Amino acid sequence: MEQTPTIRVAVVDDDPDIRTAARLALSRHVGEVVIEPRPEAVDPTAFDVVLLDMNLATGARDGRDGLDWLQRLRAADPTVSVVLMTAFGSIGLAVEAMKHGAADFVLKPWQNERLIATVTAAAALAQSRRAGVALESRHRALAASTTSPSGDIVAAAPAMLAALALLKRAAPSGANVLLLGESGTGKGVLARELHRMSARADKPFVTVDLGAVPESLFESELFGHKRGAFTDAKEDRPGRFVAADGGTLFLDEIGNLPPHLQRKLLTVLERQEVIPVGGDQAVRIDVRLITATNLPRLELAREAVFRQDLLYRVNTVEVALPPLRERREDIAALLEHFLALYARKHQQPRRRLTSSVLEALEAYGWPGNVRELQHAVERATILASDDALTVEDFPMLAAPRSATTTDAATLDSMERGAVERALAAHGGNISRAAAALGLTRAALYRRIEKHGL
Ligand SMILES: Nc1ncnc2c1ncn2[C@@H]1O[C@H](COP(=O)(O)OP(=O)(O)OP(=O)(O)O)[C@@H](O)[C@H]1O
């Protein structure tokens, strides 16, 4: 066998013949073999493998001494591989040693080939553990370097600054956070920011868009499945809860979850364990949960729409992101941010906004919120013929510009009247009033809220 110079082994046995035999067997196959009669003389960080006698105390026969030293060595260096040797081997003792973290077990007298194979495999295990630890610490350093306040989140409006301040206070606590806001208001970016500011920042951040998970795959996606659980389950697959273990799980569009799946989710959150589809073993999980929905708050408060016991589980802290039209101070700041970003991305000159274009953009309603603004700026950066952008570079400004303030007020009051009449005609029944108006219930709730009805 070829020599592997990187492997370092300590042999600890009170019997000098055993020490010599082990050294003879191993020295041609590993880089370094050190023999020691006493375990206290061994520094586990200096070795990949410690080959340790189970019965070190004179006359000891029950292996307790070896188990005790196994634990002490592993406590001093959890990455070291300890292989136990015993002349009184029994399966029971072997199992116990493995439970206490032994990499493997050899019976005396050993066959040299077996001993060499066992020690080489144990060394590979130690080396891969050490590589893993090195990787994790690099990851930690990287995460630490990015935990300063994010430069990617723009906030100038008081409502947005207040939302960010609340998020910052909630971040270290590990409390479940519910983010509310229309589509495109920034719930996704804030969820990520919350994770970055939390004690779990160097652990996984896993997102699931519940609106995009077909009902039939919900359990397998979230809780995982065992091989053979259904036709396509070719192998075991951990679900998103397990993938996020130790970190943060962000469940987006939680308001879209049908009632029977809301119940399943609630059970998992209460028990803090998941049972993969086709499995019978529960897996314990430790995740910080962030949820988000674009359902209006009033809608969410209805048991028929959303289980209130689930709501109380997920909304320990509730953060509402106002629509962009209600935080106009953010518009100019966001425009600046995206003009710089897209000029860099598309290697275009940095476009400028004249004050009249800026005013028009600030007055616009932005139904698609920040996402719409972002796309509008990207498009303008790519297509504009001049550095100074004009109203024509923003097509959404062109269409409704004929609506004057008075027209808008008239439209608003017409809408309010229609909603009031429909509600009165249907005795306040939301579903029927919504159907009569040709709206979804969520859309009707938004209008009820908007008009303060
Ligand atoms: N305050 C902000 N600063 C910078 N970029 C933002 C901000 N808010 C949102 N964005 C950007 O706008 C886009 C939409 O944001 P995000 O996906 O977080 O919204 P959302 O509320 O989660 O939307 P949806 O409900 O549709 O999932 C993203 O590209 C995001 O980077």
Keywords:
single chain, 453 residues, alpha/beta, Rossmann fold, Helicase, Ruva Protein, domain 3, 4 domains, 16 strands, 46% helix, binds adenosine-5'-triphosphate
Can you walk me through this structure?
The chain is an alpha/beta fold and 453 residues long. It has 4 domains: 4-136, Rossmann fold; 158-320, 3-Layer(aba) Sandwich (Rossmann fold); 325-402, Helicase, Ruva Protein, domain 3 (Orthogonal Bundle), CATH 1.10.8; 405-450. The chain contains 18 helices and 16 strands. The chain has helices spanning 16-27, 64-76, 91-99, 112-145, 158-170, 187-197, 218-223, 240-243, 259-271, 297-300, 308-314, 329-345, 355-363, 369-383, 395-398, 405-425, 430-437, 441-450, and strands spanning 4-12, 30-36, 49-53, 81-86, 104-107, 177-180, 205-209, 224-225, 237-238, 248-252, 273-274, 283-284, 288-293, 317-320, 352-353, 388-389. The strands form 5 sheets. It has a 5-stranded parallel β-sheet, sandwiched between helices. The radius of gyration is 32 Å and the shape is elongated. The model is unreliable at 1-5, 144-149 and 400-406 (pLDDT under 50). The structure holds adenosine-5'-triphosphate. Adenosine-5'-triphosphate binds next to α6 and α14.
